[in-house]
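A reminder from the course coordinator: this example appears on the midterm review sheet, so study it carefully.

Given structure:
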């Protein structure tokens, strides 16, 4: 069965860094556009970043304005994994982060397979 497993979250101080992982099993992740999303309690889901499939758009990327210059999305096809490198973290980045395959292309809000999410807390 197709599955995405998220990991890498945790507690980090403001200005710190984390690398989140989105590991796929049961399908080839590179064939899909992959988005990272986040949701904080009481807030709507936000699209953070997206990476296109190599077949579709040669791995082009998308970033929300509030993470440009701080976050980087990438693929490691040998590991069937997509990463989100998060630098210069701010308290307002605190949220549950999860990845998902997109039904179409980047950017998009129609999701297919979801990861379980990993919690990122940015605080002193």
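Designed residues:
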């Amino acid at each position: 069965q197709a599955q995405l497993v998220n990991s890498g979250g945790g507690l980090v101080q403001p200005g710190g860094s984390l690398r989140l992982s989105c590991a796929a099993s049961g399908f080839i992740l590179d064939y899909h556009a992959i988005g990272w999303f986040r949701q904080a309690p009481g807030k709507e889901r936000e699209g953070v970043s997206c990476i296109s499939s190599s077949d579709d758009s040669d791995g082009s990327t998308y970033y929300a304005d509030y993470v440009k210059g701080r976050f980087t999305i990438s693929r490691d096809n040998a590991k069937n994994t997509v990463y989100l490198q998060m630098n210069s973290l701010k308290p307002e980045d605190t949220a549950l982060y999860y990845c998902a395959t997109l039904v179409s292309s980047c950017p998009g809000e129609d999701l297919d397979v979801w990861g379980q999410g990993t919690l990122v807390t940015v605080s002193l």
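Residues 54-57 form the longest helix (4 residues). The first strand starts at residue 3 and ends at 7.
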